[in-house]
Design a protein that fits this description.
The chain is of the alpha+beta class and 90 residues long. It contains 3 helices and 2 strands, in the order E-H-E-H-H.
């Protein structure tokens, strides 16, 4: 089941996510900052594979490569917003 971590956003992120994926679990972040966001998201996660992308900078086409690396026994796979195909939504 997908999780969405959000922190008192002023937009309709939660409502839109719930409309698109009715089974989504929305995780409220108690504290502030990226570190707290990661802790909240990881604490709520129950899957074997966890993907974090707070700003839309991940190239979704890379996800199969990340999953392949994890399924091959690696503990961690990380992309970079600094690759040629990466973009950050602002």
């Amino acid at each position: 089941m997908p999780n969405l971590r959000h922190h008192k956003t002023t937009n309709d992120t939660g409502a839109v996510a719930r409309q698109l994926i009715p089974t989504i679990r929305i995780v409220e972040q108690a504290g502030k900052g990226k570190g707290d966001a990661i802790r909240a998201g990881l604490a709520a996660s129950t899957g074997d594979i966890i993907m974090l992308d707070a700003d839309g900078s991940a190239d979704l086409n890379e996800i199969p490569r990340f999953v392949e690396a994890l399924m091959a026994g690696n503990d961690f796979a990380k992309g970079s917003r600094f690759t040629i195909s990466a973009q950050t939504e602002t």
